[in-house]
């Protein structure tokens, strides 16, 4: 779609206008899935522009409009985007809940691993280090194709937990393995 192409090429104003037109048409013909998709696209453009408050508003609208119709992958992506914005705003507990919801509907093992690693990081940030460590052990017990970056991030999070406990050798081991 041309709105996506305009967003990808840095023409955010045009992408916003085209997505707004798509949203208006979808509302006119009462196409709920298309409304949700247009709202998600608008949110993505605002996020790119750094307007996280508007992005959060439109991501939530997208979920509200298409909650039953959104495919699992799209819903998971919207929830993760919302969680990232909440985390940037310092609302880690809300981000954690949102990521847990995303994990509950994630459809592939690789996505589940990435979300689980983020959940562990959030738990750690909230001072819930034992829960974070348990989450990471669950991640490491799985071997997922295409999960190399997620496993490296998991090692980074575990290294932080180990450093906090004074296990410098274990932290170093994790950081070396992450590279």
Characterization of this structure:
The protein is mainly α and 179 residues long. It is built from 10 helices and no strands. It has helices at residues 2-8, 12-28, 32-49, 52-66, 72-88, 92-105, 109-125, 129-140, 148-164, 168-178. The mean pLDDT is 89.
Structural key phrases:
single chain, 179 residues, mainly alpha, 10 helices
Please provide a brief summary of the model.
This protein is mainly α. Helices cover 81% and strands 0% of the residues.
List the helices and strands and how they pair.
Layout: H1 2-8, H2 12-28, H3 32-49, H4 52-66, H5 72-88, H6 92-105, H7 109-125, H8 129-140, H9 148-164, H10 168-178
Helix pairs in contact: 1-2, 2-3, 3-4, 4-5, 5-6, 6-7, 7-8, 7-9, 8-9, 9-10
Q: N-to-C terminal Cα separation, in Å?
A: 38 Å
Outline the biggest β-sheet. none
Figure out the total of helices: 10
**Helix/strand structural class:** mainly alpha
Task: Give the SSE string.
Answer: HHHHHHHHHH
Which percent bin holds the helix content? over 70%
Low-confidence stretches: none
Radius of gyration over C-alpha positions, nearest whole angstrom: 19 Å
User: Which whole number gives the mean pLDDT?
Assistant: 89
Q: How many DSSP-defined strands?
A: 0
In percent terms, what proportion of residues is strand? under 5%
The 3D shape can be described as: elongated
């Amino acid at each position: 779609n041309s709105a996506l192409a305009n967003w990808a090429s840095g023409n955010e104003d045009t992408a916003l206008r085209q997505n707004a037109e798509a949203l208006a048409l979808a509302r006119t013909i009462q196409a709920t899935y298309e409304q949700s998709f247009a709202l998600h696209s608008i949110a993505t453009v605002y996020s790119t522009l750094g307007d996280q408050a508007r992005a959060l508003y439109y991501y939530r609208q997208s979920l509200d409009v298409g909650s039953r119709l959104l495919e699992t992958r799209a819903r998971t992506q919207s929830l993760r985007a919302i969680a990232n914005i909440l985390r940037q705003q310092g609302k880690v507990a809300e981000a954690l809940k949102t990521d847990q919801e995303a994990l509950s509907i994630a459809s592939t093992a690789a996505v589940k691993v990435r979300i689980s690693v983020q959940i562990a990081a959030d738990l750690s940030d909230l001072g819930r280090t034992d829960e974070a460590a348990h989450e990471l052990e669950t991640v490491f017990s799985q071997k997922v194709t295409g999960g190399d970056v997620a496993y490296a991030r998991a090692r980074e999070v575990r290294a932080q937990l180990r450093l906090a406990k004074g296990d410098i050798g274990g932290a170093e081991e994790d950081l070396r393995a992450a590279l």
